[in-house]
Design brief:
The complex is a heterodimer.
Chain A lengths: L7 E5 L3 H9 L4 E4 L17 H13 L3 E6 L8 H14 L3 E4 L2 H10 L5 E3 L8 H11 L3 E3 L6 H8 L5 E9 L3 E6 L1 H6 L15 E6 L2 E6 L2 E6 L15 E3 L2 E3 L7 E3 L4 H7 L3 E4 L6 H20 L8 H10 L5 E2 L9
Parallel strand pairs in A: 1-2, 1-15, 2-3, 3-4, 4-5, 5-6, 6-7, 7-15, 14-16
Antiparallel strand pairs in A: 7-14, 9-10, 10-11, 12-13
Helix pairs in contact in A: 1-2, 1-9, 3-4, 9-10
Chain B lengths: L1 E4 L8 H11 L6 E4 L12 H13 L3 E5 L7 H11 L5 E4 L2 H10 L3 E3 L8 H10 L1 E4 L7 H5 L8 E15 L3 H5 L18 E4 L5 E6 L2 E9 L12 E4 L6 H12 L8 H5 L7 E2 L18
Parallel strand pairs in B: 1-2, 1-11, 2-3, 3-4, 4-5, 5-6, 6-7, 7-11, 10-12
Antiparallel strand pairs in B: 7-10, 8-9, 9-10
Classes of the chains: A alpha/beta, B alpha/beta.
Amino acid sequence: MSPENALQLICPAGSLPALKAAVDHGADGVYLGLKDNTNARNFSGLNFDEKSLAEGIRYAQGKRRQVLMALNTYPQPGQVERWHRAVDRAAELGVDAVILADAGLMAYAVKTHPDLRLHLSVQGSATSYEAIEFYRERFGIRRAVLPRVLSLAQVENVVGNTAVEIELFGFGGLCVMVEGRCLLSSYACGDSPNSFGACSPGHAVRWQDTPQGMETRLNGVLIDRYAADEKAGYPTLCKGRFEVQGETYYALEEPTSLNSLELLPEMLRLGIAAVKIEGRQRSPAYVAQVTRVWRAAIDAVKRAPETFAAQPAWMAELNKVSEGSMHTLGAYYRPWK
Amino acid sequence: MRLSLGPLLYYWSREDTLDFYAAAADWPVDIVHLGEAVCSRRHLLRLPDWLDLAARLADAGKEVVLSTLPLIESESDLKALRKVAGNGRYRVEANDYGAVRLLAAAGAPFVAGPTLNVYNPDTLALFRQMGAVRWVPPVEMGRDALARMSVPPGMQTELFAYGRLPLAYSARCFTARHYNLQKDDCQFKCLDHPDGLNLRSREGEDFLTLNGIQTQSGKVHSLAHRLGELTGVDVLRLSPQSRHMGRVVEVFRALLDGDADPAVAPSQLDRVIPGTPCDGYWLGEAGMAYQGPNHH
């Protein structure tokens, strides 16, 4: 991979203002979805309708940036048409790629729009080159987004054994589970990312100020309870405090964000094609801030990989917008596991 | 309708595992899934051991299926997968698309496991073309969705009908985390928890079960009281638990044979079910919900 094509910066666009913020602050590409359950950020008030989508594509492509459309939930029986029409619309509007998870939907896309570029979504749960090669052989995918479960050594093994471009998550909310293989949300409240396009959805969330402290619940289940000096967080259920054998703690994962910025030299060396910033549900200001920092960092590592160091100012800026104001290298750093 | 014993999801001592399958040879189940289907670090039985068990169970008249890992991370995981996929004798349940690639390329008929996310008729048809002869719907799929799946000829449907629901997989080991150990030095703590570790809300509600890198439901999914409405289902999967599994199989067998009334199934399972029951997924609700037999 030539250096100019490596480490493209792919930023979240949950709205037209966020898309413009990403483009204006240096994203090489944005990813977005429609206002329905065809994508994994099916939140009210978020995403694109026909008009904003057309304008977003015009804006980004006018500045030679890419638009990737996420259609990365699993089409539900009896509603498959909706996903087909979304693929059709993406092709007609000339998006640069669609990000898909479902094999059946890929088959439709290949048959109906042979020139449409396909990316395998993180929701496709492909963690090995054998799995990625499955999608390449069958559907000609050009890029795969890896779930946030592999160490860098494992990522290297994947990259070395497939011609498919690899995209890694760089920053943002951290799924501790393999994406696409987590049904905790539907177990608690009926809706999962796979089928509904959201985890721990707002309609099932309750905030309650009680004498014991602020309580957050998901469909009635107590996810966390906060002392007076603690800042209450959104009750994403894998980030709650639970009791196991008499001990109460973050049994699955602390509320923390992924930040792999200091690994950029390694990612460049491995030939990682793109770095993805999580957060379509976040504000345009967040998108602007994170995009600006990552743009500077990627430019710096490409200029001088040997002397690259994560600048304290960058890290401070990113920490300000991190969930729980903490960050982790996640699975890229093996001892985290 | 046939009965299957799902893969053993917990980590038991070698002796307990061998005893369990020795007993299973005499249980009225038709299909037995073997092999490690959760964590690649678990090694008390290796593939030759599983193949020995497979031969014994096949001799006892069981259809044997070898299940593969749902999370493949390393080259050694892939090597193990290739050995299972190429075993040459027993049918394989693919739980990852790497396994699907290998099995489809070999032209081997296979079972499409519950983690492959087969959610719609298009994907199911694709699996039939690739050589799958049976599929297990995602455990969250309910009866209305299943009824719309238009299962192609030559494809059987196996439904997860009993046991703690396998809900999620992670690179992180939550059992090791509970003991403040890293996964690479987990000291095989799963051995101390033959039915997993209970995770409760701070109000004492059973919520989830930690089983190494897998997270299961806290409640025990059971469709015993709903067997009458499982049209289009060819196989019922019962997921192993450490105690009373033979009795669970007998209850389901009697129900299938018409020797017992599904409405009384919960009371028959009452003394052997290792937790409170749930059936919500089947009804299109939260998986942890429970309606029981009174709301048909």
